[in-house]
Amino acid sequence: MSPKQPTPSANLFAAAGLEQDAPRPLPERLRPRVLSDVVGQDHILGPDGALTRMLETRTLGSLVFWGPPGTGKTTVARLLADATELQFEQISAVFSGVADLKKVFEAARARREMGKGTLLFVDEVHRFNKAQQDSFLPVMEDGTVVLVGATTENPSFELNAALLSRARVLVFQSLDAVAIEKLFAHAEKVEGRALPLDAEARAVLVRMADGDGRAALTLVEEVWRAARTNEIFNAAQLQDILQRRAPIYDKSADGHYNLISALHKSVRGSDPDAALYYLCRMLDAGEDPLFLARRVVRMAVEDIGLADPQALVICNAAKDAYDFLGHPEGELAIAQAVIYIATAPKSNAAYMAYKAAMRTAKEGGSLLPPKHILNSPTKLMKSEGYGDGYQYDHDTPEGFSGQDYFPEALGRQTFYDPPERGFEREIRKRLDYWTRLRNERQS
């Protein structure tokens, strides 16, 4: 075949009306060229931001960027290298091992001898094991590299304490609606065309981006590909075309724990609407409904307790209902339980009493109960005073003897202190009544 003749693959591209060298994706074409172009991270890059202050001194220490995908971690690292005139080197902990690290470190040492520094950007740094993370310490300490690690996981749990002690953690935030709109407007300006969306559909597209700038621009590109000439999509059409971007939610990572924490605190704060929202967020993301049912039972005993004794009954019933009905009908029972406990009177008195009693039990050792409440099945035990002086409460007019039941060496303790809320208001009255009788009989 003559070199001047088109190849079969080239003919296929031509037939499809495509150039052989396909254009770069929109997120790559619109990648910021200077730090001031980065949107959504003003707390880091604004006039008083942490990185702004570092750059004013022309010095840069090692950093860990922690935040969700698509928030600009890689871009900021690259632009930092430019701003500080450091050589930018990038590796991924997913694809790199010890041998790769050694090569990078050797190149950085050689570069330093020639008077040039290195900014080493490590994507997914939490994927490195402890030994690999430790290998960074010498080159960070002697200035061979300025390390910038990026992670979507909580550094407190995923990175070595030694590494964290030598780097500053900067938190990247999910892009809010204003930042996403800025990306849309920038894309429209660069491309010279408006997004073919009505106002409602545009707002839906912002929500679909889910705080991820890269995803936002990818969605913009998909919308432009799908639109015919002069076509304007409404919200329903947009959702049909793009389907729906799965929520960012890893059941083993921070998103999981953040949402269950938000659900629990919404229940504790007596906000049924917020509680239902977080419940549905997790169900929609594929969380195991039985896991949620178990957590709801825990909320009933920890935050409602005896202020409403029915809370535990209803939450257990919701778990059983899900077991019986399955998906999706059984999820309504869990939602009903969440509404019930969110609107129930709150008390952690039983929870706090249990913790206090457990602490005293652990600290007190093997103290013998008072002999008057011990059974005496043998003559020897009876001769030792077991059961001597015990009063049968039902034989008293009030059904209450007022005797002491704590070990003599410990003395009387108070663990349970019910508030004047819900059913515990009645329990408070009983306890006060029994305390008065006990004091009268012991005086």
Short characterization:
GO terms for molecular function: ATP binding; ATP hydrolysis activity; DNA binding; enzyme activator activity; single-stranded DNA helicase activity. With 443 residues, this protein is mainly α.
Average pLDDT confidence is 87
* Distance N to C terminus: 115 Å
Q: Give the strand order of the largest sheet, numbering strands 1, 2, ... along the chain.
A: 2-3-4-1-5
Corresponding CATH architecture of the largest domain: 3-Layer(aba) Sandwich
CATH homologous superfamily assignment of the largest domain: P-loop containing nucleotide triphosphate hydrolases
How many individual helices?
Answer: 22
pLDDT < 50 stretches: 1-20
What summary fits the major beta sheet? 5 strands, parallel
Order of helices and strands: HHHHEHEHEHHEHHEHHHHHHHHHHHH
| CA-atom Rg in angstroms | 33 Å
CATH fold-type name of the largest domain:
Rossmann fold
**Gross geometry:** elongated
Report the portion of residues in β strands.
Answer: 5-15%
CATH class wording of the largest domain: Alpha Beta
Residues in helix, %: 40-55%
What structural class results from the helix and strand content?
A: mainly alpha
Oligomer: single chain
**Number of domains in the coordinates?**
4
Number of strands: 5
Family: Belongs to the AAA ATPase family. RarA/MGS1/WRNIP1 subfamily.
Protein name: Replication-associated recombination protein A
Organism: Tardiphaga robiniae
Function: DNA-dependent ATPase that plays important roles in cellular responses to stalled DNA replication processes.
